[in-house]
Amino acid sequence: MISTLHKDIPASIVVFLVALPLCLGIALASGTPLISGLISGIVGGIIVGILSQSHVSVSGPAAGLAAVVLSAINQLQVFEIFLMAVVLAGIFQLIAGIAKAGLIADYVPNNVIKGLLAAIGIILILKQIPHAVGLDKDAEGEFSFFQPDGETTFSELFNIFAYFSWGPVIISLLSLFVLIYWHKTPFRKVSFFPASLFVVLLGVALNALFKMYFPHFVVSEEHLVKIPEINSLGELITLPDFGSIANPQVWLIALTIALVASLETLLNLEAVENIDPYKRKASPNRELIAQGVGNIASGLAGGIPVTSVIIRSSVNINSGGATKLSAIMHGFFLLFSVLLISRWLNLIPLASLAAILLVTGYKLARIPLFVEMYKKGLNQFIPFVVTILAIVFTDLLVGIFIGLGVSIFYLLKSNYKNPFVMENEQLNIGETLRIELANQVSFLNKASIKETLWDIPENSKVIIDASYSDFIDQDVLEILQDFKDTRSKDKNIQLNLIGLKEKYKLKDHIQFLNVLDKERQAELTPDDVLEILKRGNERFVKGKWTEKYFTHQVNATSFGQNPIAVIVSCIDSRTTPEIIFDLGLGDILSIRIAGNVINEEVLGSIELACKKIGTKLVVILGHSQCGAIATAISQENSGHIHTITDKINRSVEACQHLAIDTFAKDYNKTIGEKNVQFSIDDILENSTYIANEVKERNIKIVAAFYETETGEVSFL
Which residues is 292 bridged to in the sheet? Predict the structure, then answer.
């Protein structure tokens, strides 16, 4: 608790110093009695700080809400009637929080939130430069691009040359120097004495020195904080006109204030969580409840609406504020200052506060943030920049909605491009186009799916796989139905439409199978078959197995078989050829024998496969960590095991020079590879038919080795 106080008290002091002139400025910009602006900051800041979970700083309305407040007061004419609208707005916010309406904040993209933060930073810099050089025509709380005096944010910058004053310039430059290099001074270790407080005291002291020794540098009263004097406590309270509750216009204005204040609060809450070093998550619903209670109290006390404010919240965080205690204490400091020390606070030059806000602005709109967003891609960077520009040239809410619009555009564009994965597969039946639909396929994907399907060339084989789709919109289902019933038939496209659930009101539609016919088997060369096996193993390793339709394949292969290869492999349970080569029923002839050795029965099976069934590729497949080879190495020959190990022993003898103790796994693999070569030699030496076919290049025999740790097959 003590360590928290050490952080929160200095932070609350700094926020108070910044909040006071901003609160005054917003009150003036809203056209309310000045003292009401202070009350809103005091009452709202304390009550909302106590009830909320976050340490955002709360005070009078931000720029967007200030415009609504000004318009509302002009419409209602009587300030007491306006206060009734503020009370009702608080009730609306309270109801919204209880109804858990705060979840809408979670749907605002991060690029828009970061754009909001950067925009506030840029506005701070642009708006505080005139105050830093002594131009104070506009109030501290005025953040609109189009100013009440007819100027704009940019045109005001050109006016600084006409109103340039050396006193504020000296104070602001020295203050900036202190703020930038404070971390290198001994004072940084004193937690109760933050740099911002030193800057304020420095500004007061410098102005006092100017009065004594350099009168032409003196900062005049118009460039100082202005807190009104309170002649009686009665000035602090203005009761609302409860009789106006029957006025429909009051209810409409109350609803408008509630919506704008709630949106600004929720957006600011998301933004503050972005810059919070502890990345804490505050409940947006509790924040709405707190704001509602705060606005009810503010309206009853004669204050204008309260909402969370990024400027003060970021100052709070940058000053080390760790908990909501700093937000509560800054409200008490406001109350204390208004009642007791206003004459001392009126000595603070606005140039000192401008320096604090300039540094805060830079931290919000730092250059690395722009670089970071650019590296994330244009779909993130463009909405980020558009949000910044829109907020700078309009106001917070309008800018946020424009940023959201651009983000939605890129979301639609992304959905247009990514409702499916499409790739060409080189299967044993030839080239096949595979389209795998995404998990969620909505009407937003309709255009891209239709364009893709309608552009498929004639005479193609197409697989549309919806196995991983949890939802497919009815509009998309109609496109699939039209393609199946009309377009595919017009272009002679063979279509497999699989994975559709019954609730989609479409059933799987199968027109071709991954099963070879006699003509396709005859067309394939040994090298073609070898390429099919390689591609199949690539799919197996990547986990991208093709749909086999085993039930349909059973029926398709019941009349005959046309396999593409004969594979001699070990009986090891991890080396099933059909699986590791991603093949289906009828695709290969599999001969499995321990140690993939060759005996007369195996040799006869190979000849039968090539001569009678038409296979053109013979693969001898060894594998790592082979149990048969380990048995041969250990010289175990009990029972009939010797019929296997006797054939493997020649490979063991050929590799005896290797270091078996240090490289046991490599030793087993080396013997396995040598054993595959000996098996090929046995085939060629003992089968005249196979040897002649290989010599004539009608048949190819290859060595392969399977890694049990990775699933990858290498052809030796």
Answer: none
